[in-house]
Amino acid sequence: MTTRDDLIDSMRDFAKTDATKEMDPNWTYGRRGFMKSGVAAAAAVAMPFSILGAKNAHAVQLPYSPDYGPLAAVADEATGLSLLQLPEGFRYTSFGWTGDIMSDGRPTPSNHDGMAVVAADANKVVIVRNHEKGGTTGSFAPAKVTYDPLCDGGTTNMVFAPRTGQWVGSYASISGTIRNCAGGPTPWNSWITCEETTNGVHTNANYAKQHGYCFDVPASGSARPVPLVDMGCFSHEAVAVDPVTGYIYETEDSTPSGFYRFIPKTPGRLEMGGKLQMMKLKTATNAKVEILAVEYPYFNTAVGQAPGATWDVEWVDIDEPNKPFVSGTSYGGVRAQGLVQGASSLARGEGVWYGNGVIYVCSTSGGAVGKGQIFAYDPRRETFTLVYESSGADVCDNPDNIAWSPRGSLILCEDGNNAVSRMHGLTTDGTVFPFCASNADFRTGGAVGNYTRPSTGRLFNSNGMTSEFCGATFHNEWLFVCLQSPGITFAITGPWDNGAL
Questions:
Q1: Is 337 left (phi over 0), alpha (psi -120 to 50) or beta?
Q2: Where are any strands of DSSP class E within 219-338?
Q3: pTM (2 decimals)?
Q4: Please, what CATH class does the domain formed by 3-498 belong to?
Q5: What is the pLDDT of residues 416-435, one digit of tens each?
Q6: Residue 486 C-beta-side C-alpha neighbours within 13 Å
Q7: Could you give phi then psi for residue 209, rounded to 5 degrees?
Q8: Domain-by-domain residue ranges, the chain?
Q9: What are the pLDDT digits (tens) for 190-234?
Q10: Contact assessment for residue 325 and residue 200, using Cβ atoms and an 8 Å cutoff
């Protein structure tokens, strides 16, 4: 059987998925099971509440995990190149390099970014991966899954066989979008991909459509290139679905930025619309923003917050979710509706992930030194808590994408300016440590040196050690992650049970 045949068979299998099959470990329900379940039944999904490091927001920083040990260069099982630095006993295999020909005959797009495991059975795992491309070179996907033909952002779907540790194949799943930065997995076995922009005909007359939306990309079958307009038109970053209620929480990559929730009319059927709201913390305001020559007070969570600070939460309605900009400007139409009502802000809201009954939220530029904060929103208690704040770039340099581990900790992907990019573990007792570092310097004389892909003849000769890790997502004993540039996806495994990740 060929690799393409294996891919087709696995896609057919996933197309038959129902609630009786094993899904992504973040979820218990497939679409039909999720739709049928009431809130009472779904409440069993939520694990006991435990705030991550709530009393240790300025936590213990270690040079490496005391359980996993120090990092050292490890050879890629696919190429033999030492692309990553990992603790002893961990191994990995690379896949989906920029330019590699996919199972549908199309070249793999560049600018790998957010992704997640969206469906699985005993033999196969499906991952949807973003490509944060913002150019006008045209869609990389078929016309039927293209939104705006001029635009070159989008997603690719990949299949991995965990038992053999082999990548099976990949294909283009949606395109014609702009800057697909992050998103989030859903309980109905799909990935919500998000555009980090509000560009449109008001910024480029050559665009066919407005941008700044979310799109739902299924694990199998064709995506519908139809924007989920009621989820808002703004510079989207990531989303997290609460499986108890079906509410979707959204971050915004701007400053100030809102933290939003979308209440669908029908959980799991986002195309049917719903209500968008922005978070407002019950506390005194500490900042002002000018909108149309009027100053409005609001609360900025980014500075002056005590370790473990907790606020009660309320929500204000966004009456016009499809308002991309304030009159006379090119951005801010959604955010402004919340800020004029006193809604609160983050400093570049980026990663967000559901785990342990909590929605974890990353403020990439938050904190006293502007190097990042992690908050926990408890949707049952309606509280928002500061659980971690970086004390400097040497400790954790602007965390971006985050993910919850099956073993009960967070992994943080840096998006800073250090000479070596890293991923960090953040444990439930508030300890942070580097788990992985890039070693992918393809420059002449670099750690890896010039490399030509045998399958395509494409030359890699840039320094990937400074590129951000992104798209971290776990499935049992495997961690999948991307190096954005030059664009590589990794599957990492090893002695996870020795430590917190």
A1: alpha
A2: 236-241, 248-252, 259-264, 274-281, 287-291, 294-298, 310-318
A3: 0.92
A4: mainly beta
A5: 999 999 999 999 888 999 99
A6: 22
A7: -145, 165
A8: 3-498
A9: 999 999 999 999 999 999 999 999 999 999 988 999 999 999 999
A10: no
